[in-house]
Amino acid sequence: MKLENAKVWTVLFCVLASFFSFASVQAKTDGKDVVKQLIENAHGGVEVHDVDGHQSLSGYVGTGYRFYLDDKNRLYVYPAIDIKWGEYRADGGGFKSTSVALPITMGYKLFDNEAIRMDLFGGVTFEQILSVTDNDISYGEVNRSQAGLNGGTTIRLLNKFSINASYYYGLTSLFNDGNGCTRSYNFSINF
Fold first, then answer.
1. Cα 184 from Cα 82, distance rounded (Å)
2. pTM of the model as a whole
3. Cα(149)–Cα(167) distance, integer angstroms
4. Residue 24: pLDDT above 90?
5. pLDDT band, very low/low/confident/very high, at 13 (cuts 50, 70, 90)
6. How far apart are CA 161 and CA 14, in angstroms?
7. Which CATH number is 18's domain given?
């Protein structure tokens, strides 16, 4: 068990180090830009999961960095990192989990003024389930590596906070036996 936890923390450390290194290299001006964006893009939210007709909830917190691809700062790539915890319910039982998710989206600002900004985005999310706690379902039964597509919108008000709504379509099954198709609606607030 201790060896498995050590592997999980090693993977998490490598992912975080890679994320921050990539953001540092791509910063427009200097390291202050990276820190500023990571603070501005801090977010927290809730996912409403549906696994083969069974609903459950998860919460998450995270941050990300926008890499603008045009001169007008409208088209961007947005890698993020989220720490998630919550519950999955499915046929045969449910389990609580802790995981790390890496959503990588491409977005476009539809409009941007002092009162309101609206973005559309879509992309892929990779998730690694770090721990599973339940008496009915063992850690070995759960497909720990998850991937899916996501898309949604962000509305930023008064340049102070954002409300995000998106949909996740799982491409992998939740369980190693191929069962457990995951879908979720995600709602988050950015400050």
1. 15
2. 0.79
3. 8
4. no
5. low
6. 30
7. 2.40.160.20
